[in-house]
Write a structure and sequence with these properties.
The relative contact order is 0.12. This protein has a 4-stranded parallel β-sheet. The mean pLDDT is 85. The chain contains 13 helices and 4 strands. With 297 residues, the chain is mainly alpha-helical. 60% of the residues lie in helices and 4% in strands.
């Protein structure tokens, strides 16, 4: 119920704002779309396009995810309605291809869709782009990631070739999708004020974008050496940002702010045993969620 009602509210808003539907018609159509029946949904081709784009762009956060029940429920529901909206998976695949400018990445994406069940491609890119979870207990985050790993494995096709791992693709790296942190504690107001400074923003924003790009690469990296190199670069970028906050804003004398800036630099999402004493979505998930989330449970 929580999954359905939160998703319906968001998608109904998208249909009224971007497809010109009335609220009542949007809600009625979504009730049919979300139902586990063979009944055809009532949406036009344009409305289907709006819905697929809305699903691709949606950002959903569970700030106390526990073992991941809510984000997993969201994943299954979004996969189900994508299957009804786009049975052949063409629109969803083209939406993901349009984001890539690297021929190598495009070829890899094509293989991911071609070699596995349709739901695998749906799940993989929903997990990367749409779903975020936080919990104060590291063990909860590990359980959440395990559930998503199992969900992906279930939709992979196997082959008889043992030299290529029977066709099973390496699982994605979810350290920047599910993080251990205290969502009741935000960054101090001095940090927020410091990072809103125009000069600092001009310095910090490129670094934040580089971190976001590194997160994107890290999600699908399969080589351990490459993975460690990206993790090292992310650490370096965090140190640069913390140094800028402390040195370029005149807050060196504020021990609390300096301590928090250092906490930002030292926070390590790749340490499975650590839990951050603060939470800030932009710092932890990257620039992709800079404008906030569409659904927070």
């Amino acid at each position: 119920y929580m999954v359905d009602e939160s998703l319906k509210a968001h998608l109904a808003r998208c249909l009224t704002e971007k497809a010109g539907m009335t609220e009542d018609n949007a809600k009625a159509g979504l009730d049919i779309l979300f139902a586990y029946t063979d009944k055809e949904h009532p949406f036009s081709k344009r409305e289907v396009g709006v819905l697929i784009a809305a699903i691709d762009e949606v950002k959903i956060l569970d700030p106390a995810c526990g073992s991941g029940a809510f984000p997993m429920g969201v994943l299954h529901k979004l996969v189900y309605i994508l299957g009804k909206l786009d049975p052949d998976n063409n629109e969803w695949k083209n939406t993901q291809l349009s984001k890539l400018d690297s021929p190598t990445m495009r070829e890899e994406l094509e293989r991911a869709f071609a070699d596995n069940n349709d739901d695998y491609g749906r799940k993989l890119y929903l997990i990367e782009n749409c779903l975020y979870g936080v919990d104060i207990q590291p063990i909860a985050i590990q359980i959440s990631k395990l559930r998503f790993f199992i969900s992906l494995v279930c939709d992979q096709r196997t082959t008889k070739d043992p030299t290529k791992n029977h066709g099973i693709r390496p699982l994605p790296n979810l350290e920047t999708k599910f993080v251990a942190a205290d969502t009741l504690i935000g960054l101090p107001k001095e940090i927020a004020a410091a990072t809103s400074d125009v000069f600092v923003q001009n310095f910090i924003e490129p670094l934040e974008q580089e971190i976001a790009d590194a997160y994107h690469r890290h999600f699908s990296i399969q080589n351990r050496t490459q993975k460690l190199d990206v993790q090292k670069r992310i650490k370096e970028l965090r140190n640069e940002i913390a140094k800028a906050i402390i040195e370029k804003t005149g807050i060196k004398g504020n021990a609390d702010v300096v301590g928090t800036a250092q906490a930002i630099a030292h926070w390590d999402p790749f340490d499975p045993q650590s839990s951050a004493s603060f939470f800030d979505p932009q710092w932890m998930f990257g620039a992709r969620v800079k404008d906030g989330f569409d659904v927070v449970i």
